[in-house]
Amino acid sequence: MTMLKTRTMTAAAAMMALAGMAVADIPTEYTIEPVLPPGAPHSVSVRGLYDDGTMAVEVSNGSHNAVGNVQAWVKLADGTWVQALIPPGNNQINQLGAIAPDGTMYGTWRFNNNIFDQRGFQFTAAGTFTDFNRLLNASGAQSNTFFGAATNDYAFCRTSNLGFAYRVSDGAFLDLPVIRATPGLATGNAANGNNWFVGVSPSDSGSRATLWRLNGSGQFEATNLGLPQNPIPDATSTARGINENGVVVGWTGTFSNNDAFIWTEADGMRALPRLDPTRSHFAYDVNEAGLVVGYRASSGSAVTAVIWDSATDEVADLLPRVTNPAGWDQLLDAQFITSDGRIMGRGVLNGLNTAYLLTPVGGPSCPGDWDGSGGVDGDDITAFFADWQAGDADIDGSGGTDGDDITFFFVRWQAGC
Q1: Quick one: how many helices (H) and strands (E) in the chain?
Q2: Global pTM value
Q3: What DSSP character marks residue 320?
């Protein structure tokens, strides 16, 4: 009996698989838990999730204008919560922008609670605060400074019309290029362990999703990720997530009409399907198995968290798959996904905006485990060929069993669990 569910694979998915990208089904069930720092009644924003469990949230107890109302927290891999502490006095955290894998937080604080004096900061897991003050804009004037993405080596930030990369090793701020010839605002939204950053920057024909990679001289170079084939008229594009294989996701469209997209170096950008063809969809993150998370517009101004399987183009709402949904009125979005399929986003718990963590029931799927033993080994090859000879191994959904199914099986088998 075939232990692996037969699925129809897209041509783009086949190319991703052959490039070494694992393939996984969308889990049918998840458990949910709130992500709450000590003493916090709720947490309103999520700022990062890593495979080892390191995660960050922003807590707001009211207006951003009241000192102490906004808090930035990181939960380290050992379960310890660390709060970012800024200099005492009439000062206020404005926002937590990003966390690095080592738990370092980057964000913005208001000096003397002045909305015109919003400074970048770094706060390490060891408790060290660094004030970056306000960086310069294109006119050479100090400008409010905001962070958006970080690794252990770099952190991307921006002013009103310029982008910068902070280099941790020496404290230098590098000018970030954009994809047009003249300078402009470069905004980083996510990064992977190779110090590849993604976001958005101006082109000569509108804003475009952008990938920044280091060149041999230690400077970042910008790559225009473009638009999908047959784009929405007057579309722009924004990159929001990147996995360790360099696969990028985001959205493309206009102010009121957007498609989620996935981009690979080999195939460029393609739109992901909509669950509701009349509503905008947005992709936020992608893992190494090709599962993409984000959100879609539902009714009126309401939004709901969704997940895509980029290999099959299946798309589903997440809340109906939660096994313990009591108290959760909505899952507003899904912003981060780990390699083993845990998902972090924002929801509404008992009427309060609260960060959540979803965990697949039974752990992540393992497509190469053909015999269902919990691992990948030679027995899976034996079991696969027994099913293949019996005509019960149509992996690519072609309607028959042939050599292509063998190719797809070994791609999955070599990917492991």
Answers
A1: 3, 30
A2: 0.84
A3: G
Contact 149, 156 (CB under 8 A): yes
What integer pLDDT is reported at residue 396 of this predicted model?
Answer: 60
Backbone angles phi, psi at 408, to 5 degrees: -65, -40
- Do 23 and 311 contact (CB within 8 A), yes or no? yes
Q: Are strands 146-150 and 197-203 parallel, antiparallel or unpaired?
A: unpaired
Evaluate whether 347 touches 332 at the Cβ level (below 8 Å): yes
pLDDT, block means (10 residues), the chain with 417 residues: 34 44 74 93 89 95 70 96 95 95 98 95 98 97 98 98 98 97 96 98 97 97 98 97 97 97 96 96 96 92 94 94 95 96 96 95 70 82 89 71 82 70
Cβ atoms of 267 and 18 within 8 Å: the answer is no
Q: How many CB atoms lie within 10 A of CB 225?
A: 24
The structure tokens listed for 47 are 């700022």
Angle at 278 between CA 273 and CA 282, to 5 degrees: 50
**SS3 label, residue 391:** coil
- Distance from C-alpha of 204 to C-alpha of 218, rounded to nearest angstrom: 26
Q: What is the DSSP letter of 83?
A: E
Contact 97, 146 (CB under 8 A): yes
- How many whole angstroms separate alpha carbon 132 and alpha carbon 172? 11
Q: What tokens were used for 139?
A: 């006119």
The identity of residue 307, as a single letter, is: I
Answer for the pair 138, 161: CB distance below 8 angstroms, yes or no. Answer: yes
Which residues share a beta bridge with 264? Answer: 268
Classify the C-alpha dihedral 239-244-246-248 as positive or negative: negative
Q: What is the CA radius of gyration of the chain?
A: 22
| Sheet (strand 129-133) strand order | 92-99, 105-110, 118-123, 129-133
- Amino acid identity of residue 24, one-letter, is A
3-class SS shares of the chain: helix, strand, coil, % to 5: 10, 40, 50
The answer to whether 186 and 199 have CB atoms below 8 angstroms apart is yes
| Ramachandran class of 397: left when φ > 0, alpha when ψ lies in -120 to 50, beta otherwise | left
User: Is the distance from CB of 227 to CB of 259 less than 8 angstroms?
Assistant: no
Which SS3 state, helix, strand or coil, does residue 146 take? strand
Give the Å distances, CA to CA, from 172 to 64, 212, 245, 295: 30, 17, 28, 36
